[in-house]
Write a structure and sequence with these properties.
about 350 residues; alpha+beta; 9 helices; about 25% helix; two-stranded antiparallel ribbon; globular; eleven-stranded antiparallel sheet; 13 strands
């Protein structure tokens, strides 16, 4: 089996080193500060002949904080304090952080600067506290602005499922929770295991397969480093993205006529993959650092999203997102097509 192969790989004399990660046991009442750096690269070179379309990069740099207010067997109540401010030590011009400006707009649209929610024992959000107040904020904003389709769609989404607020304003809470477990687990360095799951894309459940691997352990720092590689069922993924693909081809109708067969096949395809690296504490099971890279190809547009989160009391060990210091950080990026 797998363990035998791992043992062979590290040499006949030493068995594979095993590591135990305890269940997630957060310190109740302690505020943890997180640094969050994000980049989005958009490649539209299939549709545009302009060089700037081949890689438009946006980035954001944030400081958020999380406090576990209370905890019991069922889970915990958490509070996230949110800010769109660019951290004081951020380098480069303020206008090179387009995502901070967008996040400021989002906070204004929901009318909040912090979120409180109930979470399961691993820290994953299960219920938003104060959803009524957020809905009231949004309704008030809508009543004072001219008819805004985006805002009314956002309002309907929140009424349908208040958890979308956390999805938009504090996705870090979900990313961190994915690396945390409600139970202790022990595994060997180098060992891989696969977990089947699903992800909702455009309202469709797309089956996923995640290969987990314990990459390394650091006894001095009391950390274990895991990687997770997520692949998506190709047929279901294509079906979920069909309307986007059709919309893309329709909006570039003249250009579409000039595409080669190979290019047209690319425009008609959909692909997605995700790789996440977690650094977890072997002391309390918490996620200390995460680097997530997602690549999506839909309708001839390639989007690469990277998120790097680390807890400020521990220096980061994972690399910055690949596009973090890109030459072309622009506010004048190629706008993605609106969802119809």
């Amino acid at each position: 089996g797998l363990i035998f192969q791992v043992t062979m790989a590290v040499g006949p004399a030493q068995a594979a080193e095993s590591v135990t990660v305890p269940p997630y046991e957060p310190a109740v009442g302690t505020e943890r500060h997180y640094r969050v750096q994000k980049t989005t690269e958009t490649d539209m070179s299939l549709w545009f002949d302009r060089p700037e379309a081949s890689s438009a990069v946006m980035r954001g740099d944030f400081r958020q904080s999380a406090t576990v207010l209370s905890q019991n067997d069922e889970g915990m109540r958490m509070k996230w304090r949110l800010s769109a401010d660019i951290p004081p030590d951020a380098t480069g011009a303020a206008d090179s952080y387009a995502m901070n400006a967008m996040f400021r707009n989002s906070l204004a649209a929901y009318g909040v600067e912090e979120l409180e929610f109930d979470a399961d024992p691993s820290g994953a959000p299960t219920a938003l506290v104060g959803a009524d107040q957020i809905i009231a904020n949004m309704e008030m904003l809508l009543s004072t602005s001219s008819s805004d389709n985006t805002a009314s769609r956002m309002l309907q989404a929140v009424k349908g499922n208040p958890l979308v607020v956390i999805d938009v304003l504090a996705p870090e809470s979900m990313i961190l929770a994915l690396g945390q477990s409600s139970e202790a687990f022990t595994t060997d360095i180098g060992k891989e295991w696969t977990v089947a799951g699903s992800e909702e894309l455009k309202g469709m459940l797309v089956p996923t397969s995640t290969v987990w691997k314990l990459e390394a352990a650091d006894k001095a720092r009391q950390t274990a480093t895991f990687s997770a590689k997520v692949t998506y069922d190709p047929a279901a993924l294509l079906q979920s993205q069909q309307s986007s693909i059709d919309g893309m081809i329709a909006s570039f109708a003249d250009r579409a006529k000039q595409l080669t067969d190979a290019q047209l096949a690319q425009a008609r395809s959909a692909g997605k993959s995700r790789t996440v690296t977690y650094v977890n504490s072997t002391h309390d099971g918490s996620t200390i650092e995460v680097l997530e890279n997602t690549v999506a190809n839909v309708g001839g547009m390639k989007v690469t999203v990277a998120v790097h989160i680390w807890r400020e009391d521990q220096p980061p060990v994972l690399p910055a997102p690949r596009a973090w210091t890109a030459e072309t950080l622009s506010g004048k990026r190629v706008e993605p097509l609106p969802e119809n």
